[in-house]
Q: What sequence folds into this?
């Protein structure tokens, strides 16, 4: 089967001036971070209250809501890894490390290194395992996918990724060890601050902060990975080039295709698609554009994308995309 052709130049021709969309406004992520902090405090408080005072069954939706807000933090970590928070590199990295990544146990500089590899080798065999593992299996008829979900829920996947986001591998072993130790010290200090917000109640800290990050959050990230980059595998197409990986990268919850029920859209945005991450195809097209301008990118390029790319690029939502069965044979795309 010949490689798919993706005319990125034709797609991008719809944007009048992409440079303007690349301009950074620190006020926007600072405001959004404040809102996320407030949402986390509210969700944690009411999750604890309802679980203990009303019913243990409130625990499950509570931890998923908390995990969704931790995912929103991850989106800001993602932006900082692209240096899209501030033109000031020190402020950008402080935001990405101390204000977001250390809160959820992510090694920011390790994440940046791995994520750059994801963009360079999207969905190809050279992509880092920490990204490709999220959609290593996309067929829900395969029993192995439920083993992966179980690994996500009990925290095994999180531990694996924690060690995958290592410091710069080009450093000497001695320097790398020092970097890891320094990271663990910073991580412990930030987590102690979070523990203090729980009034040093270790059980609540584990149940309502640590577990959502290493369990439900990883489950949601697998759904997101399958939805965003699993289309090629669903169609039986073997991706060998990054341009093909870009071709099969999907966006969700857009005006081109979305749920008829607004409630479903709101739930998915709360759990997975916060901060315009749903414009994922557009992000891979224009990775230097900050998240708050991706809706404008979509406005400009979507007519061209519909002409150049298979229509399934715009899927209703993450869960509908992840669970969907693609019936169109790959040969019809050529």
A:
């Amino acid at each position: 089967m010949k490689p798919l052709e993706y005319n990125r130049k034709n797609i991008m021709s719809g944007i009048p001036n992409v440079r303007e969309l690349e301009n950074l406004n620190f006020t926007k992520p600072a405001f959004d971070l404040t809102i996320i902090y407030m949402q986390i405090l509210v969700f944690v408080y009411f999750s604890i209250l309802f679980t203990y005072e009303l019913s243990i069954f409130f625990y499950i939706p509570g931890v998923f809501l908390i995990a969704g807000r931790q995912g929103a933090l991850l989106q800001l970590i993602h932006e900082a890894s692209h240096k899209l928070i501030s033109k000031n590199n020190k402020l950008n990295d402080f935001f990405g490390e101390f204000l977001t990544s250390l809160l959820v146990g992510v090694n920011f500089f390790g994440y940046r290194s791995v994520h750059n590899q994801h963009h360079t080798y999207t969905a190809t065999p050279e992509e880092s395992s920490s990204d490709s593992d999220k959609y290593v299996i996309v067929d829900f008829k395969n029993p192995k996918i439920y083993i992966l979900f179980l690994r996500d829920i009990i925290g095994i996947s999180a531990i694996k990724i924690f060690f995958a986001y290592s410091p710069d591998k080009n450093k000497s072993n001695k320097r790398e060890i020092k970097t890891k130790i320094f990271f663990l010290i910073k991580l412990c200090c930030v987590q102690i601050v979070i523990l203090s917000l729980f009034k040093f109640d270790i059980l609540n800290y584990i149940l309502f902060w640590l577990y959502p990050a290493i369990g439900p959050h990883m489950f949601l990230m697998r759904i997101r990975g399958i939805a965003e980059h699993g289309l090629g595998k669903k169609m039986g197409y073997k991706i060998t080039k990054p341009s093909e990986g870009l071709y099969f990268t999907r966006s969700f919850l857009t005006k081109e295709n979305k749920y008829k029920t607004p409630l479903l859209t709101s739930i998915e945005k709360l759990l997975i698609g916060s901060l315009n991450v749903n414009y994922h195809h557009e992000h891979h097209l224009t990775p230097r554009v900050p998240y708050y301008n991706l809706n404008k990118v979509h406005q400009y390029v979507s007519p061209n994308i519909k002409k150049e790319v298979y229509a399934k690029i715009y899927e209703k939502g993450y869960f509908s995309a992840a669970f969907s069965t693609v019936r169109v044979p790959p040969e019809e795309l050529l």
